[in-house]
Amino acid sequence: MKATLFDQLRRTPEASAAANAASVLSNLSADKNLMEHFYLTGYEGLCLGLSHRELTRSIISSAVPMCGEILVVGENDEVEFWTAICDELRIAATAVVANGQDAATAVSDVLKEDTCISSVLCSASYGESAIKALCDAAHKRRCSVIVDNASSRVDLAKIEDLGIDFAISTAETEQPVSIIIAKRSRLVMTEGNARQGAHDIYAVWQDSLSCRNPKWVPMA
Fold this sequence. Notes:
The chain is an alpha/beta fold. 44% of the residues lie in helices and 19% in strands.
């Protein structure tokens, strides 16, 4: 069986590091067989040269529909960072400070009361079991889930199993390396969402399609 992106990440030392993941994505781009098989997983990998703040701003801007709102769940400093970006983008944000054990319950409770929320943003610091429970709670309300790998890292090879819709990761090297691994069905829904002053993730994805085999059947 051909290797997928997730298989490649599992075999890469420090697989959750953005720099290594970006290297894997680069290798995939050069290998048409691997790219085609990864395409069939239902996920897309995007490499960008953005700082963590720019990347976070771009994913929030693109993932949240124009009429939607976002729920941010994390530690105090994380919540303040995310809500400040939402304020800049004029996106309504509900902020919840919760530990990993309480995160899924907090998300479920808020989403029951606020039907305008379309996306949930949390930190990878919660750990895999808590993130899986949070994703399950969000998906019951048809909300997308963004996981920020800044303060801690979830293994990027496991995002499919955890149910994560968007995983963002950056490596603050001399030249910033940043990646987004996104579920294609959610990525399709970002079209037309990007706010002024932020990178359009849908446009970045469309630009990346130029290297694809035209015979591949489009899959959303």
